[in-house]
Amino acid sequence: MMNTGYVRPQTLAEALAFLAENSHKTRIVAGGTDVMVDLRAGTLKTEYLLDVSRIDALRGIMLTGDGLEVGAAVTLSEIYTSTILETHAPALQKSAFNFASKQIRNMATIGGNVAHCSPCGDTLPALVIHEARAVLASPGGERQVAIEEIASGPYLCALPKNEIITRFILKPAKVAFADFQKIGRRKELAVARMSMAYMANKDAGGQVSFLRFSLGACTPTPQRMPQVEAMLVGQVPDTALLWEAGRVLAENVITMAGRRASAVYKEPAIQGLFMRMLYPMV
């Protein structure tokens, strides 16, 4: 394990000033729950670790004129206990329920979960259905990018090394139905083999009037499934329709990921998880 310097700025200005000089040899961390594992494995090689978790500008959950803002240094425990998220982004709140252990939830941050670019990042499907944008700060100023643009592939972050995610801006939604669910190798402390998030409303006639659905872990990067959304919007959901939509979803996933030996398990698992999650709409 290489010698690595540890830097913990107290303000965003201090962090950006450090990156202006050292971005090419620095890895930003905001919870660091994977740092020691990666250092020991030799997959993380950097001269400096820049810990931004104590910066006040990266904290807080609030409704503003721009939308629902969640600071990048907000922990998974804070997400799970947030009454604002319970009302305006319940799928995101639920994504923190089975996130690793309580000790890790107390340290792990939403910014770190996103920037790590793991396909099985639990917060990502919920951020996708809320059409989240990441606000990025650099020595040159501030910009915003869609959440889907942060990862260029599994564990590959597309952001320049001199940028810090300061917060996420979500489109808030008050919906009658919302959930996040995942399947892992075991019930607790499991990395998702597949995950899903959705939110929906029905009109007075029982038809689906609004639906956002995203899949995680099964594809290189989390993404919405517009074909599945289109199958349900305008329809009165019943068991047969949900099974058919789940079948189409499974077919799309296998097409995108390629048919492998695991498809024998994945196809019925995807269909079954989809049915279990959306069945409350029936």
Task: Explain this structure.
There is one protein chain. The protein is of the alpha+beta class and 282 residues long. Helix content is 33%, strand content 26%. The protein has eleven helices and 14 strands. The strands form four sheets. A five-stranded antiparallel β-sheet has the order 4-5-10-6-7. The chain has a four-stranded antiparallel β-sheet with strand order 11-12-13-14, with helices on both faces. Strands 1-3-2 form a three-stranded parallel β-sheet, covered by helices on one side. Helix 9 packs antiparallel against helix 10. The longest helix is centred in the last third of the chain and has 19 residues, at 239-257.
Give me the secondary-structure topology:
Elements: E1 5-7, H1 12-22, E2 26-29, H2 35-41, E3 48-51, E4 61-64, E5 67-71, H3 76-80, H4 83-88, H5 90-95, H6 102-105, H7 110-115, H8 123-129, E6 133-138, E7 141-146, E8 151-153, E9 156-157, E10 164-170, E11 177-184, E12 192-202, E13 208-216, E14 223-224, H9 226-232, H10 239-257, H11 263-278
Parallel strand pairs: 1-3, 2-3
Antiparallel strand pairs: 4-5, 5-10, 6-7, 6-10, 8-9, 11-12, 12-13, 13-14
Helix pairs in contact: 9-10, 10-11
